[in-house]
Every structure is written in structure tokens, then in C-alpha cells.
Design brief:
The protein has 109 residues and is mainly alpha-helical. The protein has one domain. Helices cover 30% and strands 6% of the residues. The chain has a two-stranded antiparallel ribbon with strand order 1-2.
Length: 109
């Protein structure tokens, strides 16, 4: 996977990767991304002031509702199971990358 694709597809630029993550650069890659399509929480957008040129205050409220946290944990466990425990993936030697994205500390739940 090239740095351009990493930045374009998942919004992670090469400069923010920890040294262990760069082992996969330039190699074939397969990854899954979990995302909440219908989160229970809604964020807020507020005016910072009466000045129309001032940027608004945006709080997306990500994962501030416990059900949303559990839903993304379940999604990641599902993706992990597909990569690590299904016959078709094993047959073709597909596995998750052995390194984590920056900020990830591994399975916590």
C-alpha cells in the first residue's frame, strides 16, 4: 500500500504513522474499517460568535453514547473474525496487518 492510498482512503498521512506501521508500505494490503451508519448520538454545530467569518464550533459527539461504543466494538470483532477465522480467507493467506494504526492499543474488549 502506498502512502498516497493510505492518506486518501483512511485519512492517515505517513508522518503520523509510528515506525512499526511503515513495514507494510509498498506491499499489498487488505483492511477493514468499521463505521456507525446510524449512531444514536447527534453532534452539535454552534456559532462561535456573531462574526460570519469565524469558524463554527463543531462537536461531532463521537462515541458519547454507550450503545454506539458497543456497536463499534461488535463491528470490529466481526471484522476481526472474518480476517482471522474464516476458511476462505485462510485458504488465500489473508490476515490482518501485524501492526496497529497510530493511537491504537490493541483489543481492549
Amino acid at each position: 500500500m502506498t502512502p498516497y492510498l493510505i492518506n486518501t482512503l483512511v485519512g492517515v498521512n505517513r508522518g503520523s504513522w509510528n515506525p512499526g506501521c511503515s513495514r507494510g508500505l509498498g506491499e499489498d494490503a487488505n483492511f477493514g474499517i468499521g463505521s456507525l451508519g446510524c449512531p444514536k448520538i447527534f453532534g452539535t454545530v454552534r456559532l462561535a460568535s456573531n462574526n460570519p467569518d469565524e469558524k463554527p464550533l463543531i462537536d461531532p459527539g463521537y462515541y458519547s453514547y454507550p450503545d454506539d461504543i458497543q456497536a463499534i466494538i461488535d463491528a470490529m470483532k466481526f471484522l476481526y473474525n472474518i480476517y482471522e477465522n474464516t476458511t476462505v480467507w485462510k485458504k488465500h493467506g489473508v490476515r490482518l496487518a501485524p501492526t496497529l494504526f497510530p493511537g491504537c492499543k490493541g483489543p481492549q474488549h
